[in-house]
Recover the amino acids of this structure.
């Protein structure tokens, strides 16, 4: 009897120590939406991935996605990689939602007002709680310490980094972020432009300069991602900044 009791107690201990793995949110629906409604376009002289907002809003996968985020608890996410992936995707979903909730705007900034910035405006629910774009970017993602987020989160504007035509995935995230950085810097219309000895980059690298400080600064961080032809000039250049177009990245 003692042996049975000892065995049962050991089994119970194993059960108590067992921690089931967290289930990451399934962004398959978002992946489908991106592949269907995002495609290359040139707007006002800028090359970008444009979004067919009208078609996206009518797509049944969109409403399912919004409902899914409302009911999913981010507290179940355990690893840093899971959290980064979830919140990058969620920021992009919510930026699109902000536009779709204000269909007459020419810029996402128009969804706000003089007294209420669009970034601090409630945009949707995650885990049953209201969130803002400001909260996701500045209170969740930036403190995680990966400046590559700045080419992954997209504020629905022409000069923003491109909305990637696929969802970010936990097991592919670092590869996708590196690719985003290279693609952005390869775009002279909004990422990086070299003219003789002059180098101009996106204003994003000015606004978030502090996020790159721990990585050696903006220029050092960008160097391995820049086109090879630009690297000799970039290495010793004083950076200038490209004009930023806030109009919607709308097809």
């Amino acid at each position: 009897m003692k042996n049975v009791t000892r065995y049962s107690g050991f089994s119970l201990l194993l059960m108590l120590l067992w921690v089931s793995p967290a289930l990451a949110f399934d962004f398959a629906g978002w992946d489908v939406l991106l592949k269907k409604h995002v495609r290359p376009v040139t707007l006002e002289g800028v090359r970008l991935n444009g979004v067919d907002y009208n078609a996206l809003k009518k797509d049944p996968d969109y409403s399912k996605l919004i409902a899914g985020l409302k009911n999913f608890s981010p507290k179940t996410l355990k690893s840093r990689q899971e959290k980064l992936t979830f919140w990058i995707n969620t920021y992009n979903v919510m930026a699109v939602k902000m536009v779709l909730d204000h269909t007459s705007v020419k810029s996402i900034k128009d969804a706000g007002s003089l007294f209420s910035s669009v970034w601090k405006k409630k945009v949707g629910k995650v885990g049953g709680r209201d969130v803002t774009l400001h909260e996701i970017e500045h209170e969740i993602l930036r403190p995680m310490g990966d400046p590559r987020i700045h080419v992954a989160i997209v504020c629905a504007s022409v000069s923003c980094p491109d909305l990637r035509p696929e969802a970010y995935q936990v097991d592919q995230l670092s590869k996708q972020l590196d690719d985003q950085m290279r693609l952005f810097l390869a775009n002279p219309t909004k990422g990086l432009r070299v003219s003789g000895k002059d180098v101009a980059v996106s204003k994003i690298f000015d606004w978030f300069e502090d996020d790159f400080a721990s990585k050696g600064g903006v220029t050092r961080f960008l160097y391995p991602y820049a086109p090879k032809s630009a690297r000799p000039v970039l290495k010793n250049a004083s950076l200038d900044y490209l004009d930023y177009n806030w109009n919607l990245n709308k097809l």
Remarks:
- Residues 25-184 form one domain.
- Residues 7 and 163 are 55 Å apart (CA to CA).
